[in-house]
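Fold this: Transcriptional adapter 1
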Amino acid sequence: MQPKVKEYLANTTGKEESRKSSSPEPLERARPCRQVDSNFWPPELYWANLKLWFKQKISKEEFDLEAHRLLTQDNVHSHNDFLLAILTRCQILVSTPEGAGSLPWTGGSAAKPGKPKGKKKLSSVRQKFDHRFQPQNPLSGAQQFVAKDPQDDDDLKLCSHTMMLPTRGQLEGRMIVTAYEHGLDNVTEEAVSAVVYAVENHLKDILTSVVSRRKAYRLRDGHFKYAFGSNVTPQPYLKNSVVAYNSLIESPPAFSAPCAGQNPASHPPPDDAEQQAALLLACSGDTLPASLPPVNMYDLFEALQVHREVIPTHTVYALNIERVIMKLWHPNHEELQQDKVHRQRLAAKEGLLLC
């Protein structure tokens, strides 16, 4: 019986020693740290990146990227092994029950000797909720609306809002921004003046195309339009009417040499101008054309479709045509009927006032 007892004691002692050796000793805990110091260079940089990751100042991807920079091709697995060791230690400490392999904490929370430990009075959940959470007005954090005076508004306004041509300063500022975008340093005064004249001539061409579609006009030198909306209209049934309009002399011939003291661009003599006006009046029709309503978006749309050369750039032309189409408006039958009733009421009131 004694040999069996000795064998049993020997086996039991070996198991207890193996259990003690498997417990997390300081040497076992220091192995991952020594692994970091031996594989990562410099190790201080790795520890600094690890602290930043724990403090959530860098992401996991950034931490992995910095760790791979400190490792060689053969030691890439050391980073993953170290993280797995940390997770394993944390799981062991969490899963270990109290009193199994760890000593109880005897810090500041322990009761002082000599004083009886009484029951702690727990406050109700309602008191905690009322103390920590208070009703808040959701509109208190909203920004207060302050009405601004339109006259005090110094923001940049577009020409489509002000309905006025841009000033020289606005054009110069826009040109400076465009020049900076294209790599230029500055804009000269001559360039600004050229753009101002170009804008004026461009608008004049658009207005000329719109008015020429509504009113009759005359041509000078075969291309210059003038005398829009003249009351003297040619009579299509008179042969001399067309001849009279074609034989108008608004300026001296180009091939004739000017006399001494005469301006080459001077107007014809008053007697000749009076004779031409009398001839045109005699050859004109008896009825005057009816008055037209003000220019609207339909007139502009028609003029831009007929005179495509006014806006030669296709991109600008297509953009402006879209804007014109979006702003087209015409009254429907109900609005026309209401306008008719309104006019009848106004006429009845005027009749009563006259009576």
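Residues 189-212 form the longest helix (24 residues). The longest strand covers residues 218-220.
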